[in-house]
Amino acid sequence: MILLLLISLAFASLELERGNLKALFEKFSEGKINKLELKVLKAYFETLNLGVEPYIYFYTKGLMLEKEGKKEEAIKYYLRSIKLNPGYNPSYYRFNFLIREVENREFYRKEIGEILKKRFENKPPVIVKNPENHYIFLVEKMSQYLFVFKGNKLVDMYPVTTGRNIGDKEREGDGRTPEGLYYFTEFIDPRFLSDIYGGIAVALNYPNPYDRLLGKTGSGIWLHGSNEEDRNKLPFSTRGCVVAETNVLKEDIIPKINLKNTLIGIYKVIPEKLELEDVEAFLRNWKRSWEKKDYDKFISFYSKNFRWKGGGLKEWKSYKRRTILTKKFIRVKISNLTVLAFSKIGDRRPRYYLVEFLQEYNSDTYSDRGIKRMYIVKEGESLKILSEEFTIIN
Q1: Biggest alpha carbon–alpha carbon distance for the chain
Q2: Rounded Cα gap, residues 115 and 85, in angstroms
Q3: What is the rounded distance in angstroms from the CA atom of residue 163 to the CA atom of residue 238?
Q4: Contact status, residue 334 vs residue 287, Cβ threshold 8 Å
Q5: Which has the closest alpha carbon to 182: 200, 162, 207?
Q6: Lowest-confidence range among 9-18, 173-182, 245-254, 358-367?
Q7: What pLDDT does 1 receive?
Q8: Is the CB of residue 38 less than 8 Å from the CB of residue 63?
Q9: Neighbour-count burial of 85, counting CB atoms closer than 10 A to its CB (0-12 exposed, 13-18 middle, 19+ buried)
Q10: Which helix (DSSP H) or strand (DSSP E) does residue 326 occupy?
Q11: What is the pLDDT of residues 353-388, one digit of tens each?
């Protein structure tokens, strides 16, 4: 009754006049809601008799203080909220938008850094498997941080900034940073970089095979520096790339990147829980069918949407028929396996996996050794290989 009475009045807010609660919830999550709208939501939840977690109260208090122009007090409440719930929390966004507008910004950045370190004392579930001395990069758009894991341990973390528009990238020029699993493809020659990149940039393989399956477009997504001081500490301000502090990028981050085998996952929020498929068992069965020269079984591991450098599934079948059935024996060794999973908010299971490993192949007529990468998706009840590429190493 309270909600109906409020909405029936002639409010200045268009969404209130329309009775559009969904829009109010969206504005609330983005920190753009006004006092009157907050009162409506409060009344709405009171009619439902729902309990509200303390971190939501702190977030709401922060919004109220922010609307009153009390930015530093608002930041303190956002931090209190994040301490209570360091996983997904809209307080991260408001904190990041406000932090550049207060004098004690470094003090508050240090506080949130300590929260994030504690949050990742144990590896997140998206790192399914990673060799002890192998680096994986994770970027979280919510907290505006890049996390470096060596094996399963967090070893470094750096503030970064991502796209000026918060959502997942879908098309060229949308100002969004893509969310997904990628690898680094090349270090851009500094001679071809404008000053705004700080003389250093490394390209990602966006759009990846899963992105292309979804029809996403765009290109030129890089991890790069800047010629602006503290550019990495201006949250949500790029055209889609990930920007880190230039000297840190040159001295600490780039030395950890190997173009042959360094993966980077970009998430809106790095999840705390995931139900994972047994990717290792899948790879063992794939390997076994190859070694047994069971052509039909081997092909069954590949998606109907499979892509490789030679085309699609049809071309792959033809190629593998020739290279499998003509051999007297085949032996395959897999080592240094890395498995990274991708999910979005609300996902119970990963949307796909990126796997990478050292593959040693031997047959009666040919042998090689190199890095293999696969994107693996779920089709129905089974895992399938969406794409595969192999780079020979000495």
Answers
A1: 83
A2: 10
A3: 4
A4: yes
A5: 207
A6: 9-18
A7: 38
A8: yes
A9: middle
A10: none
A11: 999 999 999 999 999 999 999 999 999 999 999 999
